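Work package 3, deliverable 3.1, input record:
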Amino acid sequence: MIPYGHQSMDNDDIQAVMGVLKSDFLTQGSKVDEFEKKLAEYCGSKYAVVVSNGTAALHSAYVAAGLKSGDEFITSSITFPATSNAGLWQGAKPVFVDIDSETGNINVDLIEEKINEKTRAIVPIDYTGRPVDLVKIEQLADKYNLTVIEDACQALGAVYKGKKIGSVSDLTVFSFHPVKTITTGEGGAILTNNEKYYKILKKFITHGITKEDFIYESPGDWYFEMQMLGMNYRLTDLQCALGISQLKKVDNFVDQRRELVSRYNEAFKNLDIIDLPVEDTDEVQSAWHLYVVRLKENLVSHRSSIVRRLRTEGVGAQIHHIPTHLHPYYQQLGYKKGCLPVTENFYERIISLPLYPGLKENQQDFVVKKFIEITKEFI
Ligand SMILES: *Cc1c(COP(=O)(O)O)cnc(C)c1O
């Protein structure tokens, strides 16, 4: 089966990891600092903190933003559940806002009415790698003194108004899972320009321990202090070496994705049973994590059958994402089906088709052929 996403590994990646395996430090060595510096440099941000996965990155960002029990954060529901789960761990409550029916990103015009005295943060998701309208979100955050935590797990390499994603929001979160733009196996990062957030993040991800800025007097150079309750969310040197090597290719990976997207768009341009993904503009350039088509209304009831048929024929179609609020756990928390009509309609229409650097043109042609053949069966 042609999967919907896949990592790209070459010999340089393998050599980079081998180098660490032969060295003295498998974790907590020099590769961590190096990866953080290069990532910050790439994004045009002051600081990067790398962690064990994107979910840990989200959790750490919520901690840095000071979210606690009784607080609320505003987000959307077409995402991986980790976006709001990580806030729930802090005791904060996700307040879901409906999405834009074209992009799948949070509808920025609906945010303000959900802001109240409990709101602490806005957590927009760059769905499929396409940046949200960050200027509007920033304006609201300034007006109501909120922190913006951008879930850019899908958007490393995306550009917003000439700036790389990772340099714009108060805190930006990336994932390095194998299907994402670059991979470290599991892995993630938080980017920020704010030194205060940076210092909290560095402590939180290693048990709340620090070797500087002591509260008590230091009795010797063996000394360290635990100053807050933290986790072990560290990324290993093995993974950071892989990350450094992968990061060299990030723009090339995104270019390959963009190239495949235009081939899909060209192949589907006369297929009037689907809506194609919203295209890039001068201001908004997606990292193209996913290629998501939306079935028109007359095919919606056949969506599951179409996906099943695609998979039997060797096309690893997938659905991104089941809305968070519709999962049993969130239903039990009291979120109601029907409360986000645009999100729920969007969910019923979407299908993700294979997209990753290394997808061969003949494989893509096969996907196109099968998709057209199979959808025709249901018209
Ligand atoms: C992948 C992803 C995550 C989770 O990242 P992990 O590295 O798998 O923990 C969170 N949010 C979004 C939008 C994602 O795509």
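The chain has a mean pLDDT of 98.
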